[in-house]
């Protein structure tokens, strides 16, 4: 089993609570400089541990670009024959060097396993929801070559839009400030928040689709009325 640290506040609470901590971290001087690195990745029930490096978050490029962190090299590749992608476990720790606080931005177990539409590589996805945004870590498994090829972390909001590096740092800083939980309750809460996020996202998508259908019907009706009016005017002349 890979390394697993107890995280801080995971973004729970109502909308009012979320707005309060967002305002708290909205000032430029409060923006933390965090170290983001994969703490460990391995196979379920195994004691293996793989360190995948650290990423600095202080550059202006990082702050203004859509949040994405890549760990593209694994020092000890795991042979494809020795594991099933669904058995992977991931720990992705974000650390504030000044305060010593840390938060895990990955679910311990995968939330989804699918394939890349073009390369056919297996994509194992781990995700948690912090402050209404989804942190998703994706492990790319190259089955032909027999190793884990890439590990990446991205953030998207409830509207499916990419969150900037600066916005993501504020979410992480707020998460670190909250009370620590840990244990089975933390995992259950994280799972519940992720399921709520997925349901909410699906609901918005369905609502958007219904609105588009309604708009199409209205446009068709207006067009039909216009045609009938034209024909009527021609006939009645």
Automatic annotation (TrEMBL):
Classification via InterPro entries: AT3G44326-like (IPR045283)
Superkingdom assignment: Eukaryota
Protein name: Uncharacterized protein
Record organism: Triticum urartu
């Amino acid at each position: 089993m890979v390394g697993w640290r107890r995280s801080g506040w995971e973004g729970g609470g109502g909308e009012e609570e979320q707005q309060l901590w967002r305002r708290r971290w909205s000032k430029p001087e409060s923006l933390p400089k965090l170290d983001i690195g994969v703490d460990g990745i391995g196979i379920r029930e195994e004691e293996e541990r793989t360190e995948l490096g650290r990423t600095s978050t202080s550059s202006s490029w990082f702050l203004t670009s859509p949040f994405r962190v890549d760990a593209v090299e694994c020092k000890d590749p795991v042979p494809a024959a020795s594991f099933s992608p669904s058995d992977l476990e991931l720990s992705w720790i974000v650390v504030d060097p000044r305060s010593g606080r840390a938060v895990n931005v990955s679910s311990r177990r995968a939330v989804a396993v699918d394939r890349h539409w073009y390369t056919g590589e297996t994509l194992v996805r781990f995700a948690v929801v912090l402050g209404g945004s989804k942190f998703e870590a994706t492990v790319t498994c190259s089955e032909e070559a027999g190793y884990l090829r890439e590990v990446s972390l991205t953030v998207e909001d409830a509207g499916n839009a990419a969150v900037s590096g600066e916005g993501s740092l504020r979410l992480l800083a707020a998460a670190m400030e909250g009370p620590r939980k840990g244990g089975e309750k933390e995992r259950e809460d994280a799972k519940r928040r992720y399921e709520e996020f997925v349901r909410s996202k699906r609901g918005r998508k369905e609502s958007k689709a219904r609105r588009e259908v309604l708009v199409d019907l209205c446009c068709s009706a207006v067009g039909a009325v216009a045609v009938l009016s034209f024909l009527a005017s021609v006939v009645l002349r």
